[in-house]
Amino acid sequence: MNKIRVLNSAVIAEHFNMADAIEAVEKAYVLHAQKQVSLFDTVFYEFEPGAADMDIKSGTVDKEGIFGMKLMSWFSKNEEKELNSLMGNIMLYSRETGAPIALLDGASITGLRTGAAGGLGAKYLAREGAEELLLIGTGNQAPYQLASALIQLKTIRRVTVCNALNFDWARSFVETIKKRLEKDFLSVLDQDTPAYEALKEKLAIDIVAEEDIEKAVRRADVILTATPSKEAMIRKEWVKKGAHLSC
Amino acid sequence: MNKIRVLNSAVIAEHFNMADAIEAVEKAYVLHAQKQVSLFDTVFYEFEPGAADMDIKSGTVDKEGIFGMKLMSWFSKNEEKELNSLMGNIMLYSRETGAPIALLDGASITGLRTGAAGGLGAKYLAREGAEELLLIGTGNQAPYQLASALIQLKTIRRVTVCNALNFDWARSFVETIKKRLEKDFLSVLDQDTPAYEALKEKLAIDIVAEEDIEKAVRRADVILTATPSKEAMIRKEWVKKGAHLSC
């Protein structure tokens, strides 16, 4: 076996931040639109429906000389064991020879990538001057969605946070989120970059919890969801004309 | 990221021989028949049809507490670069938590597994007393097929080797194969085991090259193919009644 590079979550956190993720995801979308990316079929398997599953996503970026795969598993009972419920890895391969090149932890990159994609969608598709951002869901993925949106949506003036299962979770989320955004996202951005300036500025706006989802939806210009729920939480009658949804 | 075990091809060669592979593959087939194994969908992608492709195979063995995936690529032009045309890796994960457990080189295990499976099929399905073994193909996979068959088929008295593209390749294969079987397969088996005794004994039988495939097929009791060819090489009229084919 040839030598491969192994990047664990600590190394990735040091070298790949939300600004990098936004740049990479935007580039990937452009390459995809230019038909320079091929996605292979997704494999999905439920070990225990609603409680444990895994998927394998894979594809090739010929222009970059690589192809790769990511396996991510979700075992909801991990939380009882104080383990991350999402675990997995990425493997990259040479497009010239098929040789494995690198093994990367999958969880942190997945959080950054998914957050980056949600924010990018809103940046290009939300209406100009959007001021009210609604975040539904307060789990693992929620801070990534919020950090990405705050970096990319210049006109947001207030963030409302809902949790359909338990309002207390929304309340404790808003109590700690600014510190988490500062520590986990702002501090790893390069200073004096537009992303750093944007996120720093947005840490001054109001981030509030709201128990009444209808009320929160009715005023939202941009709605970001970060929930594995299969139940509907939003009624179409509540959605403001021109609002952007990222689900 | 939790700690994972990395097993490269040298470590695997030291700890996993053809007898181990036969035992493991037989166990997997039994578990599959008992519906204790689930196979996920296979992903297949051709980078250049007929010249470069890759596949991802995956599945779970709940009883063993693991699930896993294997990505193997085939880049035919690697041979010009003196690289293995088959490269790839296996990743294993905990069935309890989804955590990655181990990264293994894929090429050597694939050779052993494929060889083990061909021999097992012949062991259980070929007619009793089969004496004439035919091996079609003389590439990477051929020694694995032959080693496995010689360990498992007690009554074989002669091996005939064909190569449909070039008879010289069959001739040079038979010139060196006994030394290769001894070095790569016999020497890594535990002495005084049935597998060791069986393979050692079989190294005394005739292994001959044959240019005329029809003649070779007509006398064969067991036909093992080890070729990526999509062209037919064997006509059904040539196949002896009761002959076993492994393709």
Considering the chains and any ligands shown, give keywords for the structure:
homodimer, 247 residues, alpha/beta, ornithine cyclodeaminase, domain 1, Rossmann fold, 7-stranded mixed sheet, 5-stranded parallel sheet, 12 strands, globular
Q: What do these coordinates show?
A:
Two copies of one chain form a homodimer. Chain A contains seven helices and twelve strands. By secondary structure, the first copy, chain A, is of the alpha/beta class. The first copy, chain A, folds into two domains: 105 residues, ornithine cyclodeaminase, domain 1 (2-Layer Sandwich); 121 residues, Rossmann fold. In chain A, strands 1, 2, 3, 4, 5, 6 and 7 form a seven-stranded mixed sheet that branches. A five-stranded parallel sheet of chain A has the order 10-9-8-11-12, sandwiched between helices. In chain A, helix 2 packs across helix 3, helix 3 packs across helix 4 and helix 4 packs across helix 6. The first copy, chain A, is globular, with a radius of gyration of 19 Å. The mean pLDDT of chain A is 95.
Concise overview:
Two copies of one chain form a homodimer. Chain A has 247 residues and is α/β, with parallel strands linked by helices.
Decide which structural class fits the backbone of chain A: alpha/beta
| CATH-level-4 superfamily name of the largest domain in chain A | NAD(P)-binding Rossmann-like Domain
Rg measurement of chain A, Å: 19 Å
Count the E strands of chain A: 12
- Count of domain modules of chain A: 2
Name the largest protein-protein interface in this structure: A-B, 41 and 41 residues
Number of helices of chain A: 7
Q: Give the CA-based shape of chain A.
A: globular
